[in-house]
Design the sequence.
């Protein structure tokens, strides 16, 4: 259909306007269809884009297949604007097998897409506001790769992060904004403001809107658009993309929109909206754009024909989605992790002429080797850059060697340090990051749980996150309550991450390389008391340094001490299953029990080398599980329970456990610390009780 020519100037191409109108009709028809079929479509909670269509479709017009996109749960029209079909979105709505994003695993409007001709859309959680950090990580990766000549800056690739205005009050959004302006990152923050949270109004939730808030972030370009007006939105987004593509700096676009649907299908709008819904209906983007089409020469009949065509097509796709297959229940456990290429030990663990080295130096040399070999690798965290090179000197001089773009300090932002690695990985950078002390990891747990751990599983393997997170851990004599804690049990309750805990220099180097090359999130716990082998009894943590090619696979325990054949024949042996500092407490204690103690160093806590544990337990029949953590509800108790259940017939005594006292913190005074923690004497007493059982 061709419009009647009129003397009217519009700054947007007519075909773009027509396509946008059809897609607005599509979004409206889908929303009405879902409402009319509540029994089917509200089985799983969903949200729609009603009221937000104009700004979303305008945004989609400016995205290219070279860009990266982070959407939020209301961004259905962005997906339609990019070319996704209603049928594909409906497959996710109904949790069908061929849902292109997650195979029926995650909510409607939560895409994860790697498809030719589309922007990359990594997985993200539905925790509102949390997507800002991974999205900023994507922009950070683009800036980093461009700085290294690994990406052409002239391509002007952009990351776009879509947010609801209510989510901007999240602290993690502030961390994202801070890094975006600090590093001058190529990102657009699209903030869609409809004045509502769920049932809370903007006036209840905030002292200012996102545009006003962003003024506090020096270097953030700010634009306001009428999010209900397609032309104003299109031109505003055109300018935002121009700035970011050419000037490589962040922009925030604040778009005021009406909310015409419910918050989600689980919260009925009539319960709290009142007359507000009628007020918002006056700003409906669809009739606004329809009136514009009439002004430029289209007729009512033309618009009605579009309505009929769209309704027929959406209905047909809905019926097709209804008939689509459900997921095979047998596939429920696929894609917890992406396969790792590191499955066997490689390189020389004891090269000729090697000297003994400390764990901290082995870690430093491992990262040095990685940065030397992999230009896409970078290392960041608090105080790891510049002259200091980490509070434990574990990154000493790396910034000088590789430059401030590759090894750099971050603000005190544990959430950003952890969560940005998700965005980095999606773009192709390979981050190594550090949390300064295990006791400081808690602000980053949100990102670790919601963004990193779930991505591979919920994206059906499309977006595993390569992330190596280094965490100095453990007590080392007077560190006090905020520098001495153990956190492994908390981490091990997070599915979808790997947890590594080396106890000597050679293992540190080999496991660090394997952790870096693993395509999944890996947390490497590094005991501060073992770093320099200065704590009495930890001299064996120093080892000959392996060569640069040495790699030790994750999930392989090591029998670091065997019982004597004579004691085995006499049936007077016990095995200690432990890791970290526990290895050295067990070694010291075993000197008083000549030949009676085998020590298994787990080295990796997830994945666990269960075969080695079982073999050792069955060989000796008596077992002590030893940890530095407070014992109650710990990984050690869980492991002991599993041993008791699966090895019961081969046990000659109950499974013993030993750990720290069940107190909330480690006291500063060293004598109080000794009372709380395990030590060689406590281990010896437990072993003697076990042998005498």
Sequence:
């Amino acid at each position: 259909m061709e419009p009647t020519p009129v003397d009217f100037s519009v700054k947007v191409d007519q075909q773009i306007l027509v396509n946008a109108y059809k897609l607005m009709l599509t979004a409206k028809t889908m929303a009405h269809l879902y409402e009319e079929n509540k029994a089917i479509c509200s089985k799983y909670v969903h949200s729609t884009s009603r009221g937000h269509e104009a700004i979303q479709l305008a945004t989609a017009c400016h995205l290219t297949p070279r860009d990266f996109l982070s959407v939020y749960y209301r961004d259905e029209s962005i997906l339609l604007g990019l070319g996704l079909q209603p049928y594909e979105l409906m497959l996710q709505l109904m949790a069908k097998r061929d849902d292109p994003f997650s195979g029926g695993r995650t909510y409607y409007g939560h895409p994860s897409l790697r498809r030719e001709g589309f922007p990359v859309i990594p997985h993200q959680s539905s925790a509102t506001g949390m997507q800002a950090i991974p999205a900023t990580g994507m922009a950070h990766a683009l800036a980093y790769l461009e700085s290294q000549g690994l990406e052409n800056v002239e391509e002007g690739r952009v990351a776009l992060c879509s947010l609801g205005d209510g989510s901007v009050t999240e602290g993690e959004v502030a961390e994202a904004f801070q890094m975006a302006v600090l590093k001058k990152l190529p990102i657009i923050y699209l903030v869609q403001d409809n004045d509502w949270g769920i049932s809370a109004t903007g006036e209840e939730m905030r002292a200012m809107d996102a545009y006003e808030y962003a003024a506090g972030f020096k270097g953030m370009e700010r634009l306001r658009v009428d999010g209900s007006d397609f032309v104003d939105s299109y031109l505003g987004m055109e300018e935002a993309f121009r700035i970011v593509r050419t000037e490589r700096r962040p922009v925030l676009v604040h778009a005021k929109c009406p909310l015409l649907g419910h918050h989600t299908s689980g919260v009925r709008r009539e319960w709290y909206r009142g007359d507000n819904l009628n007020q918002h209906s006056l700003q409906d983007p669809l009739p606004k754009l329809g009136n514009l089409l009439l002004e430029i020469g289209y007729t009512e009949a033309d618009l009605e024909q579009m309505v009929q065509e769209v309704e027929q097509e959406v209905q047909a796709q809905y019926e097709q989605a209804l008939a689509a297959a459900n997921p095979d229940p047998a596939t429920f456990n696929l894609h917890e992790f992406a396969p790792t290429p590191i499955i066997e030990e490689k390189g020389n663990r004891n090269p000729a002429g090697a000297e003994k080295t400390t764990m901290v130096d082995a870690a430093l040399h491992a990262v040095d080797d990685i940065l030397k070999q992999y230009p896409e690798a970078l290392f960041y965290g608090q105080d790891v850059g510049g002259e200091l090179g980490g509070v434990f000197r574990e990154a000493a001089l790396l910034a000088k060697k590789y430059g401030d773009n590759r090894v750099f300090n971050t603000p005190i932002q544990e959430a950003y340090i952890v969560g940005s690695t998700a965005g980095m990985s999606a773009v192709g950078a390979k981050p190594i990051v550090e949390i300064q002390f295990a006791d400081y990891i808690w602000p980053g747990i949100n990102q670790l749980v919601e963004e990193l751990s779930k991505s591979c599983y919920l994206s059906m393997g499309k977006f595993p996150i390569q992330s190596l997170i280094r965490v100095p851990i453990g007590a080392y004599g007077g560190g006090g309550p905020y520098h001495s804690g153990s956190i492994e049990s908390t981490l091990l309750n997070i599915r979808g991450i790997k947890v590594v805990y080396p106890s000597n220099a050679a293992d540190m180097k080999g496991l660090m390389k394997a952790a870096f090359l693993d395509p999944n999130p890996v947390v490497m716990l590094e005991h501060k008391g073992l770093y320099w082998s200065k704590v009495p009894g930890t001299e064996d943590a120093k080892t000959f340094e392996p060569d640069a090619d040495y790699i030790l696979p994750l999930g392989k325990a090591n029998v670091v001490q065997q019982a004597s054949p004579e004691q085995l024949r006499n049936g007077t042996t016990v095995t200690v299953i432990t890791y970290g500092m526990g290895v050295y407490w067990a070694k010291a204690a075993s000197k008083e029990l000549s030949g009676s103690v085998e020590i298994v160093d787990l080295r990796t806590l997830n994945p666990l080398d269960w075969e080695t544990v079982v073999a050792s337990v069955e060989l000796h029949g008596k077992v002590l599980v030893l940890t530095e953590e407070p014992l109650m509800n710990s990984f050690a108790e869980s492991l002991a329970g599993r041993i008791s259940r699966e090895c019961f017939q081969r046990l000659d005594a109950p499974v013993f456990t030993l750990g720290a006292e069940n107190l909330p913190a480690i006291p500063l005074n060293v004598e109080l610390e000794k009372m709380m923690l395990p030590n060689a004497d406590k281990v010896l007493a437990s072993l003697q009780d076990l042998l005498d059982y």
